[in-house]
Design brief:
The structure holds two protein chains of two kinds. Chain A starts with 8 loop residues before the first strand and ends with a strand. Chain A is an alpha+beta fold. Chain A is built from two helices and six strands. Chain A has a six-stranded antiparallel β-sheet with strand order 1-6-2-3-4-5. Chain B is of the alpha/beta class. Chain B contains six helices and seven strands, in the order βαβββαβαβααβα. Chain B has a seven-stranded mixed β-sheet, sandwiched between helices. Classes of the chains: A alpha+beta, B alpha/beta. Chains A and B meet through α1 of A and α3 of B. Chain A: GO terms for molecular function: transition metal ion binding. Chain A: Keywords: Iron. Chain A: Pfam families: FeoA. Chain A: This is FeoA family protein.
């Protein structure tokens, strides 16, 4: 299925305060599954609360999650605003 | 009468312990899971002629057993086969919460859903179609605002019904 081209970037690079939509989790599908359990599924909206050089504090709904830089790089997102 | 076991399961921070406290009151016992530094809370609840032991399972996002908490929750449900599992959900984050629910449904344990924090959802203008959810999942659904005590009587009523309709099923589970 063809999808309209959308510009994606790694979540780790979106920057503090960014509101983004999760597009895809690349790489290890084990971690993709884990992220899905935590509510991070394609299409879900995320807000980056804090960025410590790639290590992120993000908000998914009411839940705050801390992501390591490695995982944050494997999550592809598109900007919402 | 025969002792029953009812487990409380759900994501972290959905109000499981509030529900637990409301159900058991002062009749609680706190210890650790054998060999684990994870708290195990049990309490007693009288349901008609039955006395039920309520077990407050650790908060978990799934039953895949990646963390100690998840392992404990899964092992308890699989090995000790509780007579009922009460799955507490935060309605304000329903989508994520239903992930665990789907896994519990697959395990075919007698399940009751508690949609907690309906007051929060109301305040946000979220509308819930409770009959539709109950029909789609095929399990009883109770609306609750545990912090205000709303829905507790309904939960007890549903639990009594569930236990009455499925008496003395193969208990003991997998040795």
């Amino acid at each position: 299925m063809m999808q309209p081209v959308q510009r994606t970037l790694p979540l780790a690079m979106a920057g503090t305060g960014a509101r983004v939509r999760l597009v895809e989790v690349t790489g290890n599908q084990r971690s993709a599954r884990r992220l899905a359990e935590l509510g991070m599924i394609p299409g879900s909206h995320l807000t980056i609360m804090n960025d410590h050089g790639g290590t992120l504090l993000i908000a998914v709904g009411d839940t705050r999650l801390a992501l390591g830089a490695g995982v944050a790089h494997s999550v592809l997102v598109s900007a919402l605003d | 009468m025969a002792d029953l076991t009812i487990a409380l399961a759900g994501n972290p921070n959905v109000g499981k312990s509030t529900v637990f406290n409301a159900l058991t009151g002062m009749r609680q016992h706190v210890g650790n899971w054998p060999g684990k530094t994870v708290e195990r809370k049990e309490g007693q609840l009288t349901l008609g002629t039955h006395t039920a032991t309520i077990v407050d399972l650790p908060g978990t996002y799934s039953l895949t057993a990646r963390s100690l908490e998840e392992q404990i929750a899964r092992d308890f449900i699989i090995r000790e086969r509780p007579d009922a599992v009460v799955n507490v959900l935060d309605v304000a984050n329903l989508e994520r919460n239903l992930y665990l629910t789907a896994q519990l449904l697959e395990m075919e344990v007698p399940l009751v859903l508690v949609l907690n924090m309906v007051d929060v959802a109301d305040a946000r203008g979220l509308k819930l179609d409770q009959p539709a959810l109950a029909a789609a999942l095929g399990v009883p659904v109770v609306m609750m605002a545990a912090s205000r005590g709303q829905g507790m009587d309904e939960l007890k009523r549903v639990l009594s019904q569930l236990i009455a309709s499925a008496p003395a099923q193969a208990r003991g589970g997998i040795a």
